[in-house]
C-alpha cells in the first residue's frame, strides 16, 4: 500500500492539533502528536513523563533521542500502515533528518509526503492560548472560539478538559521564540521540494479547515 505522510508545521497555538483531528478523520490516517503522546506519559507519571515534564514546563524541547524512539514505536502500530499525520514532529534539524530517513523507503515505493504550514501571527496566538482547554484524547477547545458543548467536559470522549501547564505567558513566549529559531527553518526543505502547503492560520477555525481541505484535495490527497 502506498503510504501518505502529512507533516504539520506551525507555531505553538497556530491550530495544528485542531486541524490534525479533522485531517485524520478525512484522510483516515492516525494523528501522531508528540505533544499529546508526551502529555499522556506525564499523566501516567512514567519515567519518560517525569523527564519530559522538566522540559515541557519550561517550553524547551524534550531530547531528540527520546522523541525518535517514541515516534518509531508509534509508526509501528497497525493503524499507521497507510501513513500518518504528524503534529509537532519534527521540530529541529535532527528530527527532520530522522523523519526523512524513516519515510524514505515508503516514498521510494510510491508513497507521498507533504508539509503543511498553518501560518499564524504571534499576536493571534498570544490572544488564543490563555483560553485553550485540552483533553487527554487530543481534542482541543477554546473558551472564546471553540467552547465545549458542556462546560468543562470533552465533546468527543466525555472526560474533564484541563488547562495545559505550558500555557503561561512566559512559557508561551519561550515556545514561540524556539519555534522561530529551530522549527521554522525546516520549512525551507519542503518549500524547495515544492511540497509545502500553506494556509492562513489567523482565520477562524472553519475557514482554516476550508482552505486546508481545498489544498489537500488539489494535491490529490483526498
Ligand atoms: P505541543 O503539544 O506540540 O505544543 P505546540 O507545538 O507548542 O503547539 P500547541 O499544541 O500549543 O498548539 P497547536 O498548534 O496544536 O494549537 P491548538 O490546535 O491547540 O508540544 C508541547 C511541548 O511538548 C513542547 O513545548 C515540547 O516541550 C514537547 N514536545 C512536543 N513535541 C516535541 C518534539 N518533537 N521534540 C521535542 N519536544 C517536543 O490551538 C490552540 C488554541 O487556539 C486552542 O484553544 C484552539 O481551540 C484555538 N484555535 C485553533 N485554531 C484557531 C483559529 N483558527 N482561530 C481561533 N482559535 C483557534
Ligand atoms: Mg497541539
Secondary-structure blueprint:
Layout: E1 4-9, H1 16-27, E2 31-33, H2 34-44, H3 47-56, H4 64-75, E3 83-87, H5 93-108, E4 112-119, H6 122-129, E5 132-134, E6 140-142, H7 169-183, H8 187-192, E7 196-200, H9 205-218
Parallel strand pairs: 1-3, 1-4, 2-3, 4-7
Antiparallel strand pairs: 5-6
Helix pairs in contact: 1-9, 2-3, 4-5
Could you give the order of the helices and strands?
Answer: EHEHHHEHEHEEHHEH
Average pLDDT rating? 96
Number of strands: 7
Portion in helices: 40-55%
* CATH architecture grouping: 3-Layer(aba) Sandwich
Structural class: alpha/beta
Characterize the overall form. globular
Low-pLDDT runs of 5+ residues are none
Q: If you compute it from the alpha carbons, what radius of gyration comes out, rounded to the nearest whole angstrom?
A: 17 Å
Count of folded domains: 1
The end-to-end distance, rounded to whole angstroms, is: 16 Å
Q: What ligands does this structure carry?
A: BIS(adenosine)-5'-pentaphosphate, magnesium ion
For the largest beta sheet, what order do the strands appear in spatially?
Answer: 2-3-1-4-7
CATH superfamily: P-loop containing nucleotide triphosphate hydrolases
Quaternary class = single chain
What does this protein look like?
It is a single chain. With 222 residues, the chain is an alpha/beta fold. The chain has a single domain (4-30, 77-218), classed as Rossmann fold (3-Layer(aba) Sandwich), CATH 3.40.50.300. The protein is 47% helix and 15% strand. The chain has a five-stranded parallel sheet, with helices on both faces. Strands 5-6 form a two-stranded antiparallel sheet. β5 and β6 (140-142) form a beta hairpin. Bound molecules: BIS(adenosine)-5'-pentaphosphate and magnesium ion. Magnesium ion is lined by residues 16-17, 35, 87.
